[in-house]
Amino acid sequence: MKAVALYRYLPVDDPESLIDVELPKPVAVGRDILVKVEAVSVNPVDYKVRAPKATVESTPRVLGWDAAGVVEAVGPEVTLFKPGDSVFYAGDITRAGSNSEYQLVDERIVGRKPASLDFAHAAALPLTAITAWEALFVRLNVSPQGADAGKSVLIVGGAGGVGSIGIQLAKQLAKLTVIATASRPESSKWAQSLGADHIVNHYGDVAAQLKAIGFEYVDYVLIFNDTDANFPAAAQVIKPQGGIATIVENSEPVPVELLKAKSAALHWEFMFTRSMFKTPDMIEQHKLLNEVARLVDAGTLRTTLGEVLGTISAANVRRAHKLLEEGRAIGKLVLSGF
């Protein structure tokens, strides 16, 4: 089967950083399903895993953690899917990724593809939807049924992949007042089109901008971009006894002491936790993705696809990595077909 892989961890401009390869077609066992991949999307985790380091792989390593496709075969213990089912999923960071014609994935972290979306539009959703859902509804314990309606949330990185679906979940399901950060006219327009009530610039004085629109504090903060740069402002504007959730690893110590006086909470969200540690509740991601699909088909949520960059090839995957590294992407970058 065709795949995009790496042997060495190199800068994205190096043509050897990601290469086209031929690999054996895998076989489904246990609770795995074998998916014929139709479309993938690219996330910051892809370029972070690919980032330059001395390690050299003895066999090709396939990256990619967002896909939509069709079930080709199932392992003997599979009960949730059958061959021919259309699915979408983010996969498991400890296993071979989705940048290949066929991929094995545990059925418990796979959902049924939204019937109203083609594969490209569906592939834009899984990783970011799981991340935003878990950050908002699991880590911060916000009600997805609207019991916290009227409370406020600041979403840092509103036009990115996670921010794009996070705005929708916060607005459409939680019924929160959504304040998103964006720094360019086009990213501001995108965030507003998804339901953001207010826009502030994360490069400016966030607290002053919030006060100017009537918010001394916000009930929740979701940091979807640069924890190091944005945590101090988040700590300043979080409401006493409020909660902050971040998805971005820090490179410097996080000054959590800033939260003490407010008894505010800091939560980490990493959507691969369940699959990495084989937690007993792994199947919650299957349920979550099925609910996202239902909400998409009902017209409550919409795809966050920003641009289709072409077919799944090394050159196009490198291009997607480069755009994400430069911080120029709005919404999700998708590749479709081989």
Automatic annotation (TrEMBL):
Gene3D superfamilies: Medium-chain alcohol dehydrogenases, catalytic domain, NAD(P)-binding Rossmann-like Domain. Its main location: cytoplasm. Residues 13-335 form the Enoyl reductase (ER) domain. Pfam families: ADH_N, ADH_zinc_N_2. It is found in: Cytoplasm. GO terms for molecular function: oxidoreductase activity; RNA binding; zinc ion binding. The keyword Zinc applies. Keywords: Cytoplasm, Metal-binding, NADP, Oxidoreductase, RNA-binding, Zinc. GO terms for cellular component: cytoplasm. It comes from the Bacteria. Homotetramer. Belongs to the zinc-containing alcohol dehydrogenase family. Quinone oxidoreductase subfamily. This is Zinc-type alcohol dehydrogenase-like protein. It comes from Paraburkholderia lycopersici. The lineage of its organism: Bacteria, Pseudomonadati, Pseudomonadota, Betaproteobacteria, Burkholderiales.
